[in-house]
Amino acid sequence: MSAPGNVAAPGGRRGYAIAHLPGDGIGPEVTKVARDCVDEAAAAHGFVIEWRTYPLGARHFLATGEVLPDTVLDELRKADAILLGAVGSPEVPPGVLERGLLLRLRAELDLYVNLRPSKLRPGVPGAVGRHQLADLDFVIVRENTEGLYAGAGGTVHRGTAFENATEESLNTRAGVERCVRYAAALARRRRGRLTLVHKTNVLVHAGDLWRRVAGEVAAEAGIPLDYAHVDAACLYLVDDPGRFDVIVTDNLFGDILSDLGAALTGGLGVAPSGNLNPDRTSPSVFEPVHGSAPDIAGTGRANPAGAVLSAALMLDHLGEQDAAADLDAAVSQVLGAGAPGTTSGWEGALRQALAARAGAR
Ligand code: IPM
Ligand code: MN
Predict the structure, then answer these.
(1) Single pTM value for the model
(2) What b-and-e string marks burial along 202-225, b requiring 16 or more CB atoms within 10 Å of the CB?
């Protein structure tokens, strides 16, 4: 990976190489808006983006049989960051793209944190009517390379009455520790509340490791550690979400809880994510939490907010905090004025908001 900012840019400006994986369905539609917003913010903040587009996903797989060729992966490694739309289509069997592309990227690039912020913004009807804005502002730090996603397990005697399928959860001390370390540092920069979510009363082996390691890391970071079982955490997230600031949890629990977080804060359309390599040994991948939504692809109704907020996380990771804040504020402003019903309406409103912010400086 090249050091962030080392793409040659005219006039000595900072420059970043971003790999763009538009993917399938609404992926290209929402990442087009995100790209335009990033370019607009880059111009306002004095840096440039060199976009490199790669056709991966269901369409590419159906046309070529390729999921993630090693040559493309080698190219992706050279980028400063990766912006992904969404991949998938009902025509591709389950698991092919999930394991072969998304999880492979997470493993190959060692994207060990999946950062999933949930924030209720003005103008957005939360799913639970009585939630106040201040109640709902938390971040899920999901361990992103281990647990039940590690790919350990198998099937024997397939198709017989004795068929046996196992799926093992892999948890390493080093893997848990680095994830909790990231979460603890994040909690220190936020409201200082860290909650471990697991199921230690039943998953006694993995739970014991997570609990001990999280306790050690939190003590070292000098912050208190709360704990909730995952079932109770679902109840609290609906009933009393204000108790959460940073949630750290394993891969599958984080996957499930982050959809709940999205539902509470306006739906999958507005939920961003960053698959982070905090050590910066390879580029991080930023993607909206939603999928390719084939049912609305091409209708012009895709909501690009999740993609734009993911691009904001990307700019923040690259060190462009002011540009990131502009994108985040632009999304809030557009939502606050009543979300447009079309992708092009979103694009126009976002660019207007960004231009106004640039003009005000
Ligand atoms: C997500 C998705 C993925 C996951 C799937 C598509 C592999 O649900 O990013 O939340 O389970 O991590
Ligand atoms: Mn998911």
Answers:
(1) 0.96
(2) ebeebbebbbebbeebbeebebeb
Give yes or no on whether 1-112+272-361 and 126-265 have one common fold.
yes
Cα-to-centroid distance, 318 and ligand 1 (Å): 24
Pick the residue whose CA is nearest to atom 11 on ligand 1: 255
Angle between helices 27-45 and 321-336 (to 10 degrees): 120
How confident is the model over 140-188, as pLDDT tens digits? Answer: 999 999 999 999 999 999 999 999 999 999 999 999 999 999 999 999 9
Q: How many CA atoms does the CB half-sphere of 76 hold within 13 Å? A: 23
Whether residue 137 lies in the annotated active site:
no
CATH 3.40.718.10 fits 1-112+272-361, yes or no: yes
Atom of ligand 1 lying closest to residue 102 CA = 7
SS3 224: coil
Give the ligand whose atoms come closest to the C-alpha of residue 145.
1
Delimit the domains of the chain by residue range.
1-112+272-361, 126-265
**Residue 70 bears catalytic tag:** no
Q: Which residues contact 92 (CB under 8 A, 6 or more apart)?
A: 58, 61, 62
Predicted pLDDT of residue 6: 56
E strand or H helix at 119: strand 113-119
DSSP 8-state code for residue 156: E
Closest ligand 1 atom, CA of 252? 11
Question: What distances in angstroms separate CA 114 from CA 159, 176, 247, 324, one per listed residue?
Answer: 36, 13, 11, 18
Atom of ligand 1 nearest to the CA of 255: 10
Following DSSP, what letter does each residue of 267-278 receive, concatenated? -GGG-EEEEE-T
C-alpha 193 chain-centroid distance? 21
CATH topology (fold) of 126-265 = Isopropylmalate Dehydrogenase (3.40.718)
